[in-house]
Specification:
Layout: E1 4-6, E2 12-14, H1 42-47, H2 76-97, H3 102-128, H4 132-153, H5 156-166, H6 169-174, H7 177-192, H8 199-223, E3 227-230, E4 243-245, E5 248-251, H9 261-271, H10 276-295, H11 301-305, H12 314-346, H13 358-369, H14 374-377, H15 383-398, E6 400-405, E7 418-424, E8 428-438, E9 448-453, E10 456-457, E11 463-464, E12 467-474, H16 487-505, H17 520-523, H18 525-534, H19 537-540, H20 555-564, H21 569-586, H22 596-607, H23 624-627, H24 634-650, H25 657-668, H26 676-684, H27 690-699, H28 705-712
Catalytic activity: Release of an N-terminal octapeptide as second stage of processing of some proteins imported into the mitochondrion
Pfam families: Peptidase_M3
Family: Belongs to the peptidase M3 family.
Length: about 725
């Protein structure tokens, strides 16, 4: 998952939902390898042994988190933020006194970089560092940088220095496409803050932005808040499935995988019971977003949010969702009928399919049709083997190798974090990936990619190397075995590495558009594409070996796994269409024609097909409304693009180096510095239509092409 927030007009930040050039350092594992039956390269070995802790660097200098000298202690955040704020003031003066031209954009980008290098790092540390003092110092740094951003977004003189450039046609025409796009993105972000309005309206825009931030934070917290019910209101035999607290039962989730129908029904009805405060918060959030959009010149919040995306506007999004829904409808009905039959088989008294049924019964059908018990697969997917598989794939496709590098003392926040140097066969060191892969207390339970430092071309001609973190929640190794991944964990690892490669290979001049700092409906394309590689036997066969015997994973096991994913896949996709449509309606024309719950009921019945359950309000748990407001469709559209790229460029040969180089050149290299549709067009050698996107998603529901290839060999 790539989670991004926006730092005003000055750069995108990765937040869970994403220091001069670092030296090359020593490449190599630097870690004693445990005896295993299979031979690993350095990167594989580094992930199949336990780290040896600080004994490797007892007398070394303490360098600070990510090699930033100030961050050897929590107090260093204050020093780092003060340095950034002082530099910001100097750069603002330079921007306002420099004659309009390309130099204006460079100064703006350096301004963005100086703030993001503290804010991005602090955003990660405040949620991931195990020590409270570091988390609190990082939180304070975020607030301090946020305050500066608010000032910059209302600095009229700064805005006018950019406006002078963009209103001079001769100057604009002289800019190269990337510089022009970055200048326009900075201007777009300025105007979102209402800086182009008169003083009174500008104040309203600032106040609305602050209100939206507060409401977003409150709503997000409320999406996970448990509900409780008096014990006597629930049948006694299901009490043990929930948390007890005195006379009450606490329901903290949907319990979607529980085998007992009554447990799932109770969890659904109680967890989704409407909370008046959360309902009011959502209504105010949607209304405030609409007011802000109208204030800065857009007819709806959705029109504002979709500027610069692949879709471009909400009309295209709705066309995409409606056409996809039409094509899915028959398949979805068949899936629901299959679920109904399984439910009737297991529970003849009540076979009506309800919204709490599909996740559980589709799992039962998968288990019955295909023997895909995760424990059968895990021994073939040791973490070291999977990392070696990624290394092989990236090397053959892009000429890239991953090397484990021993971090300096104080550079990482937990001793089990691994540092990877990403090295190209002819270009040398491209950047660093810190792998925070293992479970620990108080660590957020999510798989995601964080940008810590964006790449950019510096004034001295050197390139500022990108630094990212990949966060997973994998089990630790045991005395008897290395860390073993389920197929789902392996696929997630490949997905997140897709984001990391976007960051490593996005060789943009400006950090404002580095790597994953691009429109949301394009940002997930590289990561979803990696899922296709992870499910191709020709790729899996390069690395999947039993950690004890060295035996390769049999072909038919990969085939079964791929086919099992098609079970009820249409119904799953239909559910995503429903969520995306709901998101569009909520961020469309205001005032809304009905309450958010009535709109949920209508949309669910039209775009999903299962009945709405009275006295529930699923929208109050829809956390993506905060980070992906008006953009929830992005996952479906990114999947459509990734599917087309896979089938047209890599299906015949997943190791095709020429296709890999084209992929880098046309899609990864530009980050957000080029219109996303131009990048897609460059890769596919055609401009895809909405119908093409829909056809790609529908074809993905059919029998895997990979399976046909396997069966024909």
């Amino acid at each position: 998952m790539l989670c991004t927030g926006r730092l005003g007009g000055f750069g995108a930040r990765a937040v869970a939902l994403r220091p001069g050039r670092a030296g090359r350092g020593s490449l190599g594992a630097g870690i004693r390898a445990r005896r295993v039956s299979t031979s690993w390269s350095p990167v594989g070995a580094a992930f199949n042994v336990k780290p040896q802790g600080s004994r490797w660097d007892l007398f070394g200098e303490r360098r600070g988190l990510f090699g930033v000298p100030e961050l050897s202690a929590p107090e260093g955040f204050h020093i780092a933020q003060e340095k950034a704020l002082k530099k910001t003031e100097l750069l603002v003066e330079r921007a306002c006194s420099t004659p309009p031209g390309p130099q204006t954009v460079l100064i703006f980008d350096e301004l963005s970089d100086s703030l993001c290098r503290v804010a991005d790092l602090a955003d990660f540390v405040k949620i991931a560092h195990p020590e409270p003092a570091f988390r609190e110092a990082a939180e304070e740094a975020c607030r301090s940088i946020g305050t500066m951003v608010e000032k910059l977004n209302t600095n009229v003189e700064l805005y006018q220095s950019l406006q002078k450039l963009l209103t001079d046609k001769k100057l604009v025409d002289s800019l190269d496409p990337e510089t022009r796009r970055v200048a326009e993105l900075f201007m777009f972000d300025f105007e979102i803050s209402g800086i182009h309005l008169d003083k009174e309206k500008r104040k309203r825009a600032v106040d609305l932005n602050v209100k939206i931030l507060d409401l977003s934070s409150t709503f997000l917290m409320g999406t996970n808040f448990p509900n409780k019910i008096e014990k006597h209101l629930l049948p006694e035999h299901i009490h043990r499935n929930f948390i007890s607290a005195g006379d009450h039962i606490i329901i903290d989730g949907l319990h979607a995988e529980a085998p007992d129908d009554l447990v799932r029904e109770a969890a659904y009805k109680i967890f989704l019971y409407p909370n008046a405060g959360q309902l009011k918060c959502l209504e105010e959030l949607l209304s405030s977003r609409d007011l802000l959009a109208k204030l800065v010149g857009y007819s709806t919040f959705s029109h504002r949010a979709l500027q610069g995306t692949i879709a471009k506007n909400p009309e295209t999004v709705m066309q995409f969702l409606e056409k996809l829904s039409d094509k899915l409808s028959e398949r979805t009905l068949k899936d629901f009928e299959m679920i109904r039959e399984m439910k009737m088989k297991l529970n003849p008294r009540n076979s009506e399919v309800m919204p709490w049924d599909p996740p559980y019964y589709s799992g039962v059908i998968r288990a019955e049709r295909y023997n895909i018990e995760p424990s059968l697969y895990c021994p073939f997917f040791s973490l070291g083997a999977c990392m070696e598989g990624l290394n092989i794939l990236l090397n053959r496709l892009l000429g890239i190798s991953l090397y484990a590098e021993q971090p300096a003392k104080g550079e990482v926040w937990s001793e089990d974090v691994r540092k990877l140097a990403v090295v190209h066969e002819s270009e040398g060191l491209l950047g660093y990936i810190y792998c925070d892969f293992f479970q620990r207390a108080d660590k957020p339970h999510q798989d995601c990619h964080f940008t810590i430092r964006g790449g950019r071309l510096k004034e001295d001609g050197d390139y500022q190397l990108p630094v990212v973190v990949l966060m997973l929640n994998l089990p630790r190794s045991s005395k008897s075995s290395p860390t073993l991944l389920t197929p789902g964990m392996m696929e997630n690892l490949f997905h997140e590495m897709g984001h990391a490669m976007h960051s490593m290979l996005g060789r943009t001049r400006y950090q404002h558009v580095t790597g994953t700092r691009c429109p949301t409906d394009f940002a997930e394309v590289p990561s979803i594409l990696m899922e296709y590689f992870a499910n191709d036997y020709r790729v899996v066969n390069q690395f999947a070996r039993h950690y004890q015997t060295g035996q390769p994973l049999p072909k038919n096991m990969v085939s079964r796994l791929c086919e099992s994913k098609k079970v009820c896949a249409a119904a799953d996709m239909q559910l995503q269409v429903f969520y995306a449509t709901l998101d569009q309606i909520y961020h469309g024309k205001h005032p809304l024609r009905n309450s958010t719950t009535d709109i949920l009921k209508e949309t669910q019945e039209k775009f999903y097909g299962l009945p709405y359950v009275p006295n529930t309000a699923w929208q109050l748990r829809f956390s993506h409304l905060v980070g992906y407001g008006a953009k929830y469709y992005s996952y479906l559209m990114s999947r459509a693009v990734a599917c087309m790229v896979w089938k047209e460029c890599f299906l015949q040969d997943p190791f095709n180096r020429a296709a890999g180089e084209r992929y880098r050149r046309e899609m990864l290299a530009h980050g957000g510095g080029r219109e996303p549709m131009l990048m897609v067009e460059g890769m596919l050698q055609k401009c895809p239509s909405v119908d093409d996107f829909v056809s790609a998603l529908i074809s993905d529901l059919d029998l895997d092409f990979e399976t046909f290839l396997m069966d024909s060999e």
